[in-house]
Amino acid sequence: TDNAPPVFQPTGNIIAFINNQLNFTVKAEDPENGPTLSYSLSGASPDPALSLSSDGRLTWTPEQNSTIAVNVTAVDECGSGSTESLTVMARDCPCQNGGSCPSFALDSPDNINCSCNGPLCDVDVDECLNSPCVHGVCNNTIGGFNCDCEQYYTDCSSQPCYPEVTCTDVPGGHECGDCPRGMTGDGKNC
């Protein structure tokens, strides 16, 4: 009997995102329903950082915008094979406000789900909603927040007490502990 070569499933353009690892599984089917197919790059790799495992996992971390043709060969257990040219495009991740891109997209870089809020992370999350600033005012920023601490929680930073005397921040200022043993005074002047 004749052994038919594997048939690749159509993918369209594969989009990788710059400085993110592409993890894409190439898929082909054996018309005779053989148990396994073995995949390999046909010819030289278009980029030394691109690799293809024998089970069809294509990995690549692009460093700049580019479009490459990746020639993949699938071989069945009887040695019949076929080759497909895949177009892989490296593009900037369109996610905004600290959102992250998935490991790949198909057809268009805008055809993705960012890990964030809003279709392209255009909705900034209010990180102050959970009141992360215990003793201060929370200021929401794009992709984060900062705390403006109340003055009395930083008053001891100027070291107003006598050396080796404990300083405690209190509303409106600070309190100095007892003077060292053998000395008298208010803790500030001993």
TrEMBL record:
Keywords: Disulfide bond, EGF-like domain, Repeat. It holds the Pfam family He_PIG. Disulfide bonds join 128-138. Gene3D superfamilies: Immunoglobulins, Laminin. GO terms for molecular function: calcium ion binding. Residues 124-157 form the EGF-like domain. PANTHER family: CRUMBS FAMILY MEMBER, EGF-LIKE DOMAIN-CONTAINING PROTEIN. This is EGF-like domain-containing protein. The keyword Membrane does not apply. The keyword Metal-binding does not apply. One of its GO terms (cellular component) is membrane. It comes from the Eukaryota. InterPro entries: Cadherin-like_sf (IPR015919), EGF (IPR000742), EGF-like_Ca-bd_dom (IPR001881), EGF-type_Asp/Asn_hydroxyl_site (IPR000152), EGF_Ca-bd_CS (IPR018097), Ig-like_fold (IPR013783), Notch_Cell-Fate_Det (IPR051022).
